[in-house]
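Hi Y.,

Following your request, here is the sequence exactly as I used it, all 225 residues.
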Amino acid sequence: MTCRATRVTRSARAAPAKLQPPPTLRAAACKVKAPTPERPPTRTCPGGGGSEQADASTALADAGVPELDASPADSGTIDAGLLANACAATQGTLQTGTNVCLFFAAAARVSWQAASLACQSRSSALVSIKDVARNDFLTNLIGSTDIWTGGNDPSTIPGANTFVWRDNTPVSLVLDTWAFGEPDAVADQFCVAKTGEAAAPPNPASPWRDRPCSELKAYVCEQSL
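Below is the corresponding structure, written out as tokens. Let me know if you'd prefer a different format.
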């Protein structure tokens, strides 16, 4: 019996299968740049022909990078604790819902100018009160103590009442925070005090009054953390 060898042509041979790395290895080989406010996340993989913009969750998940939860509620909770601790370290009180640390110099009795300089020495400024929330918070903070605020009138015209805060924004004359008839036109009253007076209609609690800047009062400094 004669055996005939069978010739297998090159074209008939099965081409070896090209091995592909498992999906997890391919993902690990990719480089992912985290998103920024200016651009979405990008993913660059070897042999991928450059960089491609990817969906944030897909790109970060492929690279094994957990997504950061940037929800305001969660970050606010964490930040509030850190801010409160930082504020307490300076003997201040963090205003609820803000990053503003308020230092109440309750035992001080100084002029407006001395109070302003004292706040500057703490890398802060005499407190500005631009909304009802800040005013109400201070009312509870100072109790029955009169304090200097950052409001003053840089003019020398009695009754001009061109008060400004330390950042030169105007002090509101229409907020329901002034004592009745204030600010008035009495000479030499160029600084704004928040009093510790109890509410006595038509006056609100702790109403504001324009007073001579030389009077001696406690004060509150503010600092943004």
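The CA atoms of residues 180 and 203 lie 6 Å apart.

Thanks again,
Q.
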